[in-house]
Amino acid sequence: MPVAVGAAVLTTVGATTLAASATAAYVVGSIVITGALVGASYAMQTLSAQKPLRERQQATLNEAMGPRRFIYGQAMVGGTRAFWDARYGALFQSLMLCSHEIDGIAEYWIGDRKVTTDLGEAGGNVIDYPLYTVFFERHLGTPGQTAALLLTTNFPETWTADHRLRGIAHVCVVFKGVKEKDRQLVYPQGAYTNLRFTVRGKKIWDVTAPGQDPENPGTWLWNDNSGAVILDYLRSPDGYRRHLSQIDVPSFQAFHLRCSENVPRKDGTPVARYRTWGTIGFDEEPQAALARLCSTCDATLYQGPSGKIGIRDGAWTGPLINIPSQHITGAALTQGNDKLDSYNRLKVSYTEPNNYYQPTELAPRDDLPSQAAIGVIEEVRDLVMVPEYTQAARLAKIMMARDNPLWKGSIATDLMPLDVLGEKAVDITYDPLGDGLNPLMNAPCEIEAFTLRGDVSGCDLGFRAMPQSAWSWNAAVEEPPKPIAPAPIGQIQAIAAPTGLITHFDRPNIAGQVGVRLGLSWDASSRADVVAEAQYARAGLGDWAPMALDADGLKAWTPLLSDGASYEFQVRFAVGGAVSDWTPAGPLTAVADDLLTGQPLGFVANGGTGQVLLAWTAPGSPNLGAVRLYRATSGAGFGSASIVATVNLSPNQAYDMVDSGLSAGTYDYWARALNRSGLGDASSTTGPISATVS
User: What's the burial of 573, exposed, middle or buried (CB within 10 Å: 0-12/13-18/19+)?
Assistant: First the structure.
């Protein structure tokens, strides 16, 4: 199998088509399905499952038969490889995200870095340094989607137009080859570099939307309303498998509206009361999955007199039906905050999108009187499919009220409580003394169990007190601090580019010959952990080569350069896989000899027919390289002159020459001495002198 992505062709692996699959995530949740038929007795069920395998949810997996999954709301997921092969020096892979159509891919992640693509949500080329060599091809899992073009084009013998993966959301990815020196920077984990995607998941039926047909998924839209998510899972053939005729639709309409209610946060911004984000595996027990979904919205599923499944939350409004003491024939009650069978500190965690969709813990909710009486007894709950901290905090308040009631127990009654079947809550008044002045218990309660005795002599009810205040919410007082999310990787690794660049010359004498190398210096970075990288190239060619750093890391030098050539420079800071922008400098001409020679001597010009005879003596400077002769029409000036000849001479050497083929007229001439680097200026130039041609 390919173990690295480099300039050479990757080791070929067999193209393996894996089953379209995804990863299950497990959490603790609960569900209640109760009946309201006379003679039936239904008790609350609390179903527990494994803790969520989040690291598996976001991993890239190689499995022949990976688990399949739903994605509801929004989630960050990895995938299972359905294809993995190397060709043309690149690695091709196809990752299965989930087994249904999705609404879109909001973010693409390589390792721990969110990247930008030139086609936005549709993928395309990564445009962030240094990941330009990665390309994504997105497929949403639509019924009519076509086969991946990346695979049909590059592996036509293996992946054909029939490999459409309809109904399976997936992403094809190419890791293109890079130079050996860049391999660790671009692909730190080689071929196994992890890929993740922030996915807007399943399109689901909105029971309150008139334009959506419950039997036509083509009319459905993305929705994270908790009631809509539960209804979708109840109806899905890969979920609870219930037909619409088995669903109490009006109850779901009412619950949908309840979930959609805006709840203000402390900062004044509204948030929907109940939303659900996360994944559910096809291999999970449906009741456990429903329990997890219900835990996101304080929902109870129940079976009404018609036999249909309905839904409601625990909130109630008065007045309630009262079960007075005269109808109670016996009672077993528990009261008080000092009970040892519960807890008085609740810690809940939820999934925080700004924390890479990882579990994030809220400040604990404390029952201070109970802690003062018996010490701290802690309970931890994982609201894995809750995507927002105030929703988690509101649910924590309800949980704590329900798990730590002022009263709980059971009562035996006559037949009067038959009137409360199907109610969310009732008032129970219990006065064993019978004076009616100070009843032992008078509280609103949830009914947890209901039994009609076989001889029809009465009823037995299990209950727990639930004050209406459990569902009230004062954000200004009750909202906990929002957990601090870690800074994004890009922000942590942000490095300012080098500043204060200065160029330098060095002209070493090597065996009597003067060479030239160029240097570049810069100001120190504000970060002590960075290392500078400096490069040079011939101007306009862009074939960059590294420069040698000085020991202090603030200056770098080229090797010996071509005398008279022009060069460009750039420098950046780097640490680990993070780099700053390049800071450019130049272009700059490499000049080995910067000492001027002085003027040529005895410069004369004599005109003739169609020609001019010229003579001079080279200056005596030992670094003389040549003398260059210039000509211009009389009076035009040196700026209009053209080069007639460049003659290599020794110091003090006399020289004469003929400038022929000239038209009649008067001409001005200049002679400029050049050093060995070709450097000369007005101080090394003699002239003008004039000559007339006949």
Answer: buried
In 155-206, the DSSP E strands lie at 169-175, 195-204
Q: Which helix (H) or strand (E) holds 671?
A: strand 665-675
pLDDT of residue 678: 86
Using a CB cutoff of 8 Å and minimum separation of 24, what contacts does 353-357 make? 353/74, 353/277, 353/387, 354/485, 355/483, 355/485, 355/486, 356/58, 356/76, 356/112, 356/486, 357/54, 357/58, 357/75, 357/76, 357/198
Burial environment of residue 414 by CB neighbours within 10 A (0 to 12, 13 to 18, 19 or more): middle
Give phi and psi for 56, each to the nearest 5: -80, -35
Please state, in angstroms and rounded to a whole number, the distance separating the CA atoms of residues 107 and 116.
Answer: 8
Residue 250 one-letter amino acid:
P
Residue 626 and residue 552 in contact, taking contact as beta carbons nearer than 8 Å: no
- Residue 19: which of 109, 123, 102, 94 has the closest Cα? 94
pLDDT reported for residue 58: 62
Rounded-to-integer distance, Cα 93 and Cα 16, Å: 10
d(CA 587, CA 537): 9
The tokens of 395 are what? 């649910």
Helices (H) and strands (E) in the chain, counts: 10, 45
**Other C-beta atoms within 10 Å of 428: how many?**
30
Helix 249-260 to helix 226-235 angle, to the nearest 10 degrees?
A: 150
**Whose structure tokens read 């009562």?**
411
238: three-class secondary structure by DSSP: coil
| Alpha-carbon span 113 to 532, nearest angstrom | 22
Residues 56-96: tens digit of each pLDDT: 566 666 665 566 999 999 999 999 999 999 999 899 999 99
Complete domains list, the chain, with CATH:
59-204 (no CATH), 494-589 (2.60.40.10), 601-693 (2.60.40.10)
- Amino acid letter, residue 627: V
d(CA 385, CA 394): 14
Read off the tokens for 88. Answer: 């043309």
Instruction: Report how far residue 363's alpha carbon sits from residue 627's, in angstroms, rounded to the nearest whole number.
Output: 85
3-state secondary structure of 531: strand
Q: Burial code of 360-382, b = ≥16 C-beta within 10 A, e = fewer? A: bebeebebeebeeeeeeeebebb
Q: pTM for the complete prediction?
A: 0.69
What residue type is assigned to position 630 of the chain? Y
Question: Considering only CA atoms, which of 442, 446, 239 is closest in space to residue 335?
Answer: 442
d(CA 278, CA 173): 24
In 486-598, where does DSSP find H-type helix?
Answer: 489-492
What is the rounded average pLDDT of the residues 448-473?
Answer: 92
Retrieve residue 5's tokens.
């992505």
Q: What is the pLDDT of residues 476-535, one digit of tens each?
A: 999 999 998 776 655 556 789 999 999 999 888 777 777 889 999 999 998 888 889 999
Question: In angstroms, rounded to a whole number, what is the distance separating the alpha carbons of residues 300 and 297?
Answer: 9
Diameter of the chain measured on Cα atoms: 146
Strand partners, 69: 281
- Paired tokens of 13: 């692996």
Taking residue 45's Cβ as centre, other Cβ atoms within 10 Å add up to: 12
Q: Are 52 and 16 in contact (CB under 8 A)?
A: no
φ/ψ of residue 396, rounded to 5: -65, -40
Which of 317, 318, 202, 321 has its CA nearest to residue 254? 317
Q: Tokens 């002590």 sit at which residue?
A: 528
Question: Is pLDDT at 452 greater than 80 in this prediction?
Answer: yes
Contacts of 511 (CB under 8 A, 6+ apart): none
